């Protein structure tokens, strides 16, 4: 290694032993690092640029509830424009208008209020919108103004013609100020680049911590800001809302010094500490209060650009500063943009498709993009994060995630992760177990975000996510502890009528509303627990929860043929309209569609409902019946666009329904339905989504179904086969294997599958096993336009 | 050491080498620990029980603002009864009635609202009163009720006949419930013992985090509570008030299980997270909101006692739980009480006195007690604490303290600490330097508590405290960093007209009120910085600040003979009443008394004021002039009881004034004044203090003066001699030395000192050097009733 021996001798003679040792250590460390780098370079597969097919605008109009801004896969920062500030509640009463603004952005809006750093993707209730920044020029205005009169505040008009949204990058022209705004992000840091117009000698940056999504008077609990020096500001924002006790810390750095700054305080807390010693309104670096807005002025006379790095932390301002320094230690905006694109391509390349057309390619990779927007990383670069107990914890051997919209995502998103994101999915489960440890209820998450449980929706579907990972051998977590967490969660009597469910075998409608939905979902989750227990050899638990899993039977009314609310005295509730979505024992659905929710036992359910033929007719009716608009009007999370007959694709409880044909004598009937949904309910363009994307669940349905299979019952390794819309797909598995899917004779008309061949063998039943995917292999669908005879 | 050789051989033969090594390690560790313990046992000096002379009730009536509750020296927990809930502000306007309740307790009050865990001692503005507990029986009431109608709420009538207050222990009979309440404390944990009456089968414990001192609607920012299990509750309380952004964490443990519990929420924040899944009002363990009150019910049918341990933390609930487990890992109330008494005796024994009578002994040891109530420890048992930047810091090589009432305590309390608490005083300076490091202003504390700067009063007297320690060689801190902190603090232009002071040499009254007081105090602090610089050999700084120290001259008006407000154009303000305390350029004083505030240059000041004779007459007038009541009416912190003529002992700016006679031709004139003050302004009984004790400053004056000397200008090693009221005092110094003080021929009439002898040598001047105390030695005052000829 040291070829030049005289030189080596010289070195040895001129150094003492310790120095020589140090030298050799450094030399070998260098050699070893270089070797590692070479291996990594070699291991990096050649990535295709799939980001070009992603359109973050899809879902930003109507009910998609996605945001167009800049973020990286599973990133903590979602830096995105907010187009309005509709309050969640006015005078303490819910304002239904707010629903449009779950992600802060509505495509039809003519103005942008500013750019905030946190957004949920596709949810049907909301929060966040932290730390809005808005560059302005001219007269300083600290209020946001109104859509009708943007000139009355700091907001600006904008046009989609001068707006760009790409994975990891967003830009827009703020027309009222003639400012070009660009933004990109790393995991914990957003970076803004503002280009000011020629005539702006001094420009303002508005910082509005009073802004928020699902805002209301009272949401801001406390804001704390320190202007540390002329290029660094730190602080935090504490809110109460969907998350009751939420604090987000920040560090904001500028690439040029602040000229001057100031704050307005809008609360009337009589703070007496200052003894009138200071003018707090201007250039006073120590700011706190309930309602604060600030401005920072910059010299833009010759240097027309201002860059702002904005780091978040769940722990502290110190954590935010460290995140900032670690993730973006430079001011090269374009480098961050490029790295964000690379991160996206790394994830998007996990499935390489050959679509029928460009539209399908856009839909597919945008669905992939939406599927990887959450859950989001929730810890500092050093692994510290705030727990549910509001203490600081350290994620020692995992990445901690937050924002678990589990009632949605257990269905297809986490199953998708078990295929293309197994490492992250295991870490998500570790995060859920940490949540369980920190929960004063000893419960796994229901819908949790930012160290809070918001309890949204029903069931305890963490159990499904964990069980699915266990049966699929994705078990880089303590499975024993996980099983304990699941069974403990399933026995918290005071949780949402669970004691009644345990005592009576169903939730009685006279004790708790949406009783049928709850009974059905508890029963499914119980089955999932049983599957995990079986896999882990815990037979007593398997038996116990298999018994509970049958509880769906207790709400089946053979007379009406529907699942139907029962009272605590055992009788069915008398008044009953199976089409009505209100007060009938269901949540976000009616008896027609929700009665089909027995994903873990379709055969038994079909038996209960009168056998295969009768059930087949029932499904046929579901997809074809014509309903007056009134039936789904005013039902949250259900919009006209998502409906086919009485089937509601825009909301989750129906997502497995088309695949139920696989348990009838006519599985082929699923095929045209699935192809119709893929074609009609997912489109390109801002209004392309037919319902809330729900943190990737709608998109995960698309990804599975377009490849020809779907996880009807997570917790089973079986996927129901459908009808692929793609020509080909190659799944690059983390274990290095490849799974190839191809649709032979694929055309728009050839929607039926006449046979399915796995690794050269015809599949007898319309099901695929997860382990066959993970082993790698080849799945061939033979497409036809004729109704096949599969039996 | 191993005497039994066969046994040893057996052990050796039966163990492998590793086990043997481990065994030997353990053995030697045991031997070494035992030896250490023996040394410690030996080193413990025989302590006298001086706690019997402490009466915590002194100062609890009228304006003393002390509290009678249980605490240990410099303890973080001050567990004390609060007798009313007067709001600080009503409809946003200051309510002057609140002033009586700075420490939560007023002796004349007939009811006790409950027992809260944090109290300032003797301050003239306030905060705290965290986490009120109140045991009740009968009908559950969650509101505190009123003094006039205690039955309308949870409060109770009480009588001083059935009330006991001792160092570290407080008890009272709650007459309305017939409950005996007792409490004691360790540093971070309070322990309550409630004895319920025969007829109380179920008893309530009210937990009221809405209660607070200097409370107002809006002070409660957020409260978070978790009922972790049936004997442990954790949480925090976040308030805004004197401290703007303050959070205190707690852990509360019961010695018997909760039967049931509940909460009322009084705010109207529309929290929607619960989706009506739970009855949150009862037995729901996850509680948060702006305004919360709770109750816990206990079975008191047979076991009549309930004990509650209540730990505080500045960091987290986890920190509070650790503090609880570490400090009081048992339920032995009497042991905690005994240990608290021992801790007090250890501190009180630092000065062993022979007083003239029992009253003097009570006054002296109560003054010692009050002097050791603050600053208070502010960190967890593991050294973690919240800093001014709201980040968590670790006190690596010191105890972190908070609650620095420096405008008061720099005068005599910290100088007293340099004699009897040098270690703690150095740690307090380290705490101040940590504050400086964390300050966004780069300023040392002005008046800081609980990770907040409340900016109360004027000057930057941290400089005095640090300089005093430096010149007195109490320098277990980084003196270079300390000097830098002092000079940096003294140059923050935007702080309280400091830029004007630096530019003009005085604060102009047209730019900032109380301009003369500020100019005088800045000048003194600058002198203190100069003294520190001199001691550290930093001559440039010495010169610079010595120059600034002369600025008192700039506000002296030779014409009127008073310090007088000047305007920014250089002229003196025309309208001027040297007796008025309002709008004359002074704060909490008038030109008559505040003009004497040049503690660092009395000789020069006397020269300026016309020489020694004229000045002597001036002092004579000060003490004898008769003033109409109106002059001091409505002047905060000044009450009739504290006044002698125009001399105001009840407030700090005059504390050095009697000693100024030492710079005249008649030092003896100080003697009868000092003895009069010692006799008349300090009494036993609840109304014994003639003004706010101000976190020990009033008491420290007593301790110094009763021993015959006083630090007129901290930052100098010189003490001015006065007239001791004690017969003897022995100061037990931390360095092991003893300093003996004796007053020979001491009687009530013999108030004059005819000579003072230090270690056998007559002192020529009426001054004593600090180093002579620390070396140990003997100081003898020869007392006489005749006016001595000292010149």
From TrEMBL, chains A, B:
<dbReference type="InterPro" id="IPR005887">
    <property type="entry name" value="GH92_a_mannosidase_put"/>
</dbReference>
<dbReference type="GO" id="GO:0006516">
    <property type="term" value="P:glycoprotein catabolic process"/>
</dbReference>
<dbReference type="InterPro" id="IPR041371">
    <property type="entry name" value="GH92_N"/>
</dbReference>
<dbReference type="InterPro" id="IPR014718">
    <property type="entry name" value="GH-type_carb-bd"/>
</dbReference>
<dbReference type="Pfam" id="PF17678">
    <property type="entry name" value="Glyco_hydro_92N"/>
</dbReference>
<dbReference type="GO" id="GO:0005829">
    <property type="term" value="C:cytosol"/>
</dbReference>
<dbReference type="InterPro" id="IPR008928">
    <property type="entry name" value="6-hairpin_glycosidase_sf"/>
</dbReference>
<feature type="domain" description="Glycosyl hydrolase family 92">
    <location>
        <begin position="320"/>
        <end position="784"/>
    </location>
</feature>
<dbReference type="InterPro" id="IPR050883">
    <property type="entry name" value="PNGase"/>
</dbReference>
<feature type="domain" description="Glycosyl hydrolase family 92 N-terminal">
    <location>
        <begin position="53"/>
        <end position="313"/>
    </location>
</feature>
<protein>
    <submittedName>
        <fullName>Alpha-1,2-mannosidase, putative</fullName>
    </submittedName>
</protein>
<dbReference type="Pfam" id="PF07971">
    <property type="entry name" value="Glyco_hydro_92"/>
</dbReference>
<dbReference type="GO" id="GO:0000224">
    <property type="term" value="F:peptide-N4-(N-acetyl-beta-glucosaminyl)asparagine amidase activity"/>
</dbReference>
<keyword id="KW-0106">Calcium</keyword>
<dbReference type="GO" id="GO:0030246">
    <property type="term" value="F:carbohydrate binding"/>
</dbReference>
<comment type="subunit">
    <text>Monomer.</text>
</comment>
<dbReference type="InterPro" id="IPR012939">
    <property type="entry name" value="Glyco_hydro_92"/>
</dbReference>
<dbReference type="GO" id="GO:0005975">
    <property type="term" value="P:carbohydrate metabolic process"/>
</dbReference>
